[in-house]
UniProtKB/TrEMBL annotation:
Keyword DNA damage: no
InterPro entries: Glyco_trans_2-like, Glycosyltransferase_2, Nucleotide-diphossugar_trans
Name used for this protein in its record: Glycosyltransferase family 2 protein
Record-annotated membrane-spanning stretches: 238-258, 270-295
Domain of life: Bacteria
Localization (cell): Membrane
Amino acid sequence: MNQPLLTIAVPCYNEEEVLHETAKQLTAVMNSLIEENLASEESKLLFIDDGSRDQTWAIIEELSQKNGFVTGIKLARNAGHQKALLAGLETAMGFSDCVISIDADLQDDISVIREFMIKFHEGYDIVYGVRDNRESDTFFKRVTAQGYYRFMKKMGVNLVYNHADYRLMSKRALEELSRYSEQNLFLRGVVTLIGLKTTEVYYARKERFAGISKYPLKKMLAFAFEGITSFSIAPIRWITLIGFLSFISSSIAGIYAILVKVMGHAAIGWASLIISVWFLGGLMLMSIGLIGEYIGKIYQETKQRPRYGIETDTFSNAFIQRKAVSKADTVTRVK
Ligand code: UDP
Ligand code: MG
């Protein structure tokens, strides 16, 4: 039987410091997979340049001259990690039997790629890479991340605990994924909706070996918020509940005020009045803001804009050229 064609998709945003080393290490992994008959010789590394402003694309081009595994796609502009990854997955899908996604900084242990492939051979469609500790993270990132997973679970969003975007997906799983056509894409949430045969593989996460995190706090918060509002309408329900509760309590307070008045005691103070006005005003503004967030999402979805644009794609070219060559071969042979 032919070995499965594996593509390793690596989104890169301003990663000039790490690319050489990343390509080197992933090439070594590829070679050993091929040696062990776990992956086909045609397997590829696919670097997705997410509109970097440094030498990233130049390095990808240079690497692809020297290294037969290396291919790349260059996005027309910075689309963000999730969309860049999606661009990679959808490009790779057409020519691959399975695709592994991994970050360019190799914080995720590449030695478990072998286990991913073994699971794939066992018939799994989705294999999640799950971190078994967070020691390499800062205290702050660890606490916020843990809180986030718990919170998401409460909100009814099913995430694999401690799993980022390090995973293997089969062609079948990717085809399912590409049918989720939403603009507000939160990959890790969507992948758990696909179903199919899934399993997990555990590993320890390392520190970034060079360069700085491309996820500063601001992006991290935006990402977390995106994850919630593109998956769950629980916040809107909460607001209805809070509104209902404050209506009940203000009714009770109203009855109390009337009783006090009737019994001839002193009028209720100005302070409590002003506080409740501010409290309700704030609550309402917040609620309107949150509902606006969802309406904004609807607005974006209805526009149905493309989620990313590809400027150059050497990955598909490599396969199309090869097909053309082998076709030419058969034609001459037939003659
Ligand atoms: N990344 C991207 N586009 C962006 C931001 C990040 O493609 O707009 C890539 C980045 O190059 C890396 C991955 O997403 O391969 C994860 O980023 P990073 O390692 O900086 O995040 P962290 O590990 O700190 O969460
Ligand atoms: Mg990282």
